[in-house]
Amino acid sequence: MDKPEHELRASALSCRRGHRELFAGLSFSLRAGQWLHVRGANGAGKTSLLRLLTGLARPQSGRIEWNGVELARAGEAYRASLAYFGHGHGVKDDLSALENLRLGAAIDGRALDRATAVGALARVGLRGREDLPMRVLSQGQRRRALLAQVISRGARLWILDEPFAALDVSGVDMVCALVGEHLQRGGSAVLTSHQPIALAGGQSVELAL
User: Fold this and answer.
1) Within a 10 A sphere around the Cβ of 88, how many other Cβ atoms?
2) How many CA atoms lie within 13 A of 50 on its CB side?
3) What does pTM read for this prediction?
């Protein structure tokens, strides 16, 4: 079965924070099976770039397209194709990891049965902690719960901002395995990280800010 084709394209992007220009003239193309590693020092604009790519912010100049359509016009078609993993926890502390996962799916308009949700949480190392309130989980476990939302969404494009933060060595290996499997299924990914990334499968694209 052929893998679905898609393309995220950025052309001559520039971004400012206050009076400071973070980057300018930035261009790249990302297709199915490819992943983009965004590198740079703190404050270089990595998170700002990811916010542009998710449509949460707009560039000072330049253009971002999904399958040839500018993000502002791609609308729901782009949002349905995207899974974003950011710095904010984005979970409700009084709900369990399982409840948060199923609530997120319901907000997206997706049905997610308990067995599938439990399987996703087990895949990210939260077996046995599915029903614990989020407030009692460690920072690393909370981030694992967010990763479960990413893998259960069925999105073609993953945008992951510092996905290794607060994770131990086994957690880093787990993230690399998940992204590698996603690429092999024909997905694509954008990752920011201060450390080298070793993925099995997929074609890497490097971008330094």
Assistant:
1) 8
2) 26
3) 0.92
